[in-house]
Amino acid sequence: MELRQLEYFQMASRLRNITRAAERLRVSQPNITVAIKKLEAELGIQLFDRSQKQLSLTPEGAVFLNRVELALRNIQDAVLEVNDYKQLQKGTIKIGIPPMMGAYLFPRIFSSFQRQYSHLDIFMHEEGSMSIREQLEQDDLDFGIIIISGASNHLQLLPMSKNQVVCCVPENSPLAKKKSISLQDIAETNVIMLKEGSFLRQTILSKMKTENITPNIVLESNQVITLKGLVANGVGVAFLLDMVVEDTPGVKAIPLSDPIFVDVGLAWKKDRYISKAAQSFIDFCKDLLKQKHEV
């Protein structure tokens, strides 16, 4: 039994799809198929039920996955700990950033951190807050700078700022004259949405459903500059955080009649070994917050 076989099995189980697992692991689909078949032959059991369109675990496969998850996590933590004992002046941090944080909050944090810890490498993975939360729990990322409101109790959270969700409308729209906007006000208006995996998208769509509103979504994008440009050119309205739309030409940011506030912060998985590189990033963020409060 090889470590690679277990990693392939774990990813296929999570994604319930061999092709997507191969894409995520950057290997060919046959490699994963062959590895899993060898694993099944060695164990003498069938790990997956292949009779349906979507790959699903057999009862034996589910039991095996629980053990594999724990084993791979322990191996990963052991490697991190051994590397720390080497006391090498280097390290790697994998961090997930939603588009809004990536464009406006993270660059300021990263530039300061890099000056102080130039020997550490940071790999940035851009996704929505909801997707990043899942990847943190699956040990695919070290950190996420995300919307932490309503996050799982499996995550350790460091709140960094409180922000308000605003409705962005074209400056010359009749809606721009309003001091606040209800979801009913834009029920018949074209809407430009962030893509799946976004906390804001999930929150707004949930509130619209509660009010029996079916949004007319004309475009979806995770590029904040694109969203603001589309709004400025009259394509529709969009929902963003107030911190990313200040002084945007052609766009008026208006708070909702039923205000929505969210906390943005640093998140990482509880009960996981924290490498020296990762701990340095936590300490750095804490120092930033301390300096901010002292100003």
Automatic annotation (TrEMBL):
- InterPro entries attached to this UniProt entry: HTH-type_LysR_regulators, LysR_HTH_N, LysR_subst-bd, WH-like_DNA-bd_sf, WH_DNA-bd_sf
According to the entry, every stretch annotated as the HTH lysR-type domain falls at 1-58
Naming one, the record's GO cellular component terms include: cytosol
Q: Which PROSITE patterns match?
A: HTH_LYSR
Q: Which GO terms describe its molecular function?
A: DNA binding; DNA-binding transcription factor activity
Q: Which Pfam families match?
A: HTH_1, LysR_substrate
Query: Which protein family is it in?
Result: Belongs to the LysR transcriptional regulatory family.
Question: PANTHER family, per this entry?
Answer: HTH-TYPE TRANSCRIPTIONAL REGULATOR YBHD, LYSR FAMILY TRANSCRIPTIONAL REGULATOR
Which protein, by its recorded name, is this?
LysR family transcriptional regulator
